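Batch manifest line 343
LIGAND: L-homoserine
JOB: complex structure
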Amino acid sequence: MLRFSFHSPNPNHPSAKTLDPSPVFRSVKTFAPATVANLGPGFDFLGCAVDGLGDVITLSVDPGVAPGKIVISSISGAPKLSHNPLRNCAGIAAIEIMRKLGVRSVGLSLSLEKGLPLGSGLGSSAASAAAAAVAVDALFGSTLTAHDLVLAGLESEAKVSGYHADNIGPAILGGFVLIRSYEPFEILPLNFPADRDLVFVLVSPDFEAPTKKMREALPAEVGMKEHIRNSSQAAALVAAVLQGDARVLGSALSSDVIVEPKRAPLIPGMAAVKVAAMEAGAFGCTISGAGPTVVAVIDGEQQGKEIGDRMVEAFLVNGGLRAKATVSKLDRVGARVISSSNQ
Ligand code: HSE
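JOB STATUS: finished
ARTIFACT:
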């Protein structure tokens, strides 16, 4: 099993060699996927990437920008986001990578296309940070490790969303990622077998659930009974991922007795949406990240469509919320370069 530990010395790290690298491209375009954090009992330590949804970044060398600096030249799909790179999750991650690389001689401009709604529980801030981190690294020749990229993204997450890597880890690496420890920082990618099917039904209601507010709803302490229950289900979840068992994975992610009971009442209709998903045949259902998106899992795309329709209907009838369903598979790649140019 691959593992990334904060303390592993990396002889290929650019800081061990030259600083102020030259760009190898004039511009690069990157994509980073949406992520589902927590997966029920994996609160703050487990997440996975899902395909089809995500953010795109175009990053260019710009002689009009002061050397060593970055500007955000355009943002589409999210009018509320700041163009100040110090207050934008893509900008913060990009600056962090520029700092790690020691970029001093060229200025950069970044353009962000938001494919993910803000505050939706789909790792929107992490997708922007991941796409930005990979873009800066790629522009200068892709010398950094995945671990470096995740840590840069975590800096960004800590400033805009909270100190948790269960979105940024899988947004960078793809697949399932377990955050084993924050001090020291250590993550373990978990391989869901390639010959097994896993389908996510993501239902996003027209409702805002800011992560900060949803974290404030959590208990400061938990009882021993709940601790045992959640630990055993989290362990089952990890085993199910490694065995490619969508049925056990679903029942484990459905069994959180600590976080979901506190957050579900803050999302109108959530309890009924979960019942609708299970009655329609889902293996399990819970809140995606901090919500309000609700995620159900199954092992076939056709059933996924039917389950999504039932969940959308339940949001409308029981929560008075319009919602949109997306059926996605696991994204096994994570943040990636989709094109590069020297023009
Ligand atoms: N683990 C975080 C939370 C994820 O649930 O607060 C936020 O996307």
